[in-house]
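Board notes, transcribed. Complex of a protein with NDP.
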Amino acid sequence: MASMIFSDCSSSTTARLLPLRCHKLHRSCSVLSFSLRVFLPLTSSRSFLPSLSSFQAHVSSTFVSAKMATESSAIVIDGKSVAKQIREEIAVEIARMREATGIVPGLAVILVGDRKDSATYVRNKKKACDAVGINSFEVNLPGDTTEQEVLNSITRFNEDPSVHGILVQLPLPKHMNEEKILNAVGIEKDVDGFHPLNIGRLAMRGREPLFVPCTPKGCIELLHRYGIQIKGKKAVVIGRSNIVGMPAALLLQREDATVTIVHSRTNNPEDIIKEADIIISAVGQANMVRGSWIKPGAVIIDVGINPVEDPESPRGYRLVGDVCYEEVVKVASAVTPVPGGVGPMTIAMLLSNTLSSAKRMHNFN
Ligand SMILES: NC(=O)C1=CN([C@@H]2O[C@H](COP(=O)(O)OP(=O)(O)OC[C@H]3O[C@@H](n4cnc5c(N)ncnc54)[C@H](OP(=O)(O)O)[C@@H]3O)[C@@H](O)[C@H]2O)C=CC1
Ligand SMILES: Nc1nc(=O)c2c([nH]1)NC[C@@H]1CN(c3ccc(C(=O)N[C@@H](CCC(=O)O)C(=O)O)cc3)C=[N+]21
């Protein structure tokens, strides 16, 4: 996690989710002078999962024309609710598979070292597995363990038929060769989608990866489920890491967006970002993207998870995104909050990849 910092943005009003009636009708929102398309969550026909929508059941159309509100005008893309819905869909599928075949999907997580944030993520993944009926296997190794010991655990899980997905929690301790370790995960169990063969296939036209990395997949799934068109749009991805930025850009391109990547050496990033219809930010800098950088009506997916000091919070800090939420919510047409945006989707996609893996291995559709 990035170190804690104060930011101007964090000192203004606290970000709040819009009430659902604002998503639905928009009559309760005050109106500005220009129109925009308002996006409603929907069970995407392109979704990898069957249609099952509880919180959307009352919403009949994909798009509703509406006016932009003067304050807190953007639609809040509610990743927490969408992730919950997806987990429910996955649980139904897992039960169906178990009843038909007796097979229960299994996910193995390898955690090396004692980083608090990593331990929290791993705990949350285990809870999520339990809730949907995935067996979870966990290996905790001390920070000073050898690379060989990590490789041994991977080999064991590669050979274990009750394990359908293997995740090595990142970051690894500095003395370890991340490339060597990630390469050891069998490609058919690479539910993180970090194996170079999966990433290579993602990058190539006409090739299909066995798994798509969870966080970028979660970003695209949110766009689909909110009926936000990607094809033909100008998209900017901020950040080019192997686990988020780069695969997010590849996925957007596969969805027929025209994609630009902004990174730490980009000149005049604001000018490039201002052109974008869709922005995915994965930087790790609290509140970096300001309202003035955004084209009115743009859609913003904020991947950043940044702790900022907050004496009023029980933990002494709270999490904010890369985007100055209070500012962009007034300019964008839709935005993901932090927390409650992309984070829960990452875990939902991990469960989904694990289920797909088990189905593929056992030829179950
Ligand atoms: N919600 C979720 O599920 C997840 C959230 N995260 C969060 O997303 C954020 C990014 O994670 P990750 O991709 O692993 O981070 P990395 O540190 O690996 O990558 C950050 C990227 O941002 C770029 N960058 C850094 N500073 C700037 C800047 N000022 N302007 C433009 N680009 C910049 C870097 O550029 P360069 O390449 O030039 O160095 C790099 O490409 C973090 O906050 C992390 O906690 C991560 C994974 C999952
Ligand atoms: N091999 C590997 N795969 C990963 O997918 C991976 C990883 N390593 N290392 C670390 C990052 C980070 N990551 C997150 C997952 C969920 C939330 C999440 O659920 N966040 C909640 C908030 C949680 C809280 O309050 O602490 C939210 O945004 O609402 C965040 C971050 C996965 N990562």
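The chain has two domains: 9-77+214-344, 102-192. The domain at 102-192 is CATH 3.40.50.10860 (Rossmann fold).
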